[in-house]
């Protein structure tokens, strides 16, 4: 259950990174920039705030790193326009086209499928442990069957949660 929960939470985190037409600091906070010779996430070099629905403002703590941060955001190739005024960086997110929305929906479905595969692998690993216990006669055949059903029910419950989250995310992406 712990593994399944971990996979589900990871899926939700990944969904947060998919753009839906609104600016969200999480979209750029983990972009690595050259900060005094070390690759560092932007959120460890600056404050990131939402100015409006389609614009983020990045305020570096050290103005001398402004160029490096701007270059890092541009290098991430996210389809955003980046400008600076010498003190702050403005990251403007363009309106999503229908084609781009469909691409993001496909990305969400791909993430869902990868999560389901990871969950099935977790189920297989769990059942392997139970099989070993059965071979060593530490659990009976009936106990093994009961555990197998319980694990399958748990997996089904988590995959349903994942499916619902994906449907919600796709509806959010396709909303104009």
Structure description:
By secondary structure, the protein is an alpha+beta fold. Strand 1 and strand 2 form a beta hairpin. Helix 1 packs antiparallel against helix 3 and helix 3 runs antiparallel to helix 4. The longest helix is centred in the middle third of the chain and has 38 residues. The mean pLDDT is about 90.
Instruction: Give the CA-CA distance, first to last residue.
Output: 37 Å
Q: Radius of gyration, Cα only, in angstroms?
A: 22 Å
Largest sheet: 4 strands, antiparallel
How many distinct helices?
4
> Could you name the ranges where pLDDT drops below 50 across 5 or more consecutive residues?
none
Instruction: Report the portion of residues in β strands.
Output: 15-25%
Counting DSSP E segments of at least 2 residues, the number of strands comes to 6
């Amino acid at each position: 259950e712990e593994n399944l929960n971990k996979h589900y939470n990871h899926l939700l985190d990944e969904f947060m990174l998919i753009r839906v037409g609104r600016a969200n600091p999480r979209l750029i906070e983990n972009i690595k920039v050259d900060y005094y010779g070390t690759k560092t996430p932007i959120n460890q070099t600056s404050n990131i705030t939402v100015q409006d629905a389609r614009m983020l403002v990045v305020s570096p703590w050290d103005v001398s790193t402004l160029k490096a941060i701007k270059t890092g955001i541009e290098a991430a190739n996210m389809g955003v326009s980046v400008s600076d005024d010498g003190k702050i960086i403005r990251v403007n997110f363009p309106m999503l086209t229908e084609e781009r929305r469909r691409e993001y929906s496909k990305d969400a479905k791909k993430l869902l499928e990868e999560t389901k595969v990871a969950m099935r692998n977790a189920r297989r690993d769990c059942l392997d442990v139970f099989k070993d216990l059965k071979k060593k006669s530490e659990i009976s055949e009936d106990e093994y069957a009961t555990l197998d059903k319980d694990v399958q029910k748990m997996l089904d419950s988590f995959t349903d949660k994942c499916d619902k989250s994906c449907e919600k995310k796709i509806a959010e992406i396709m909303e104009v």
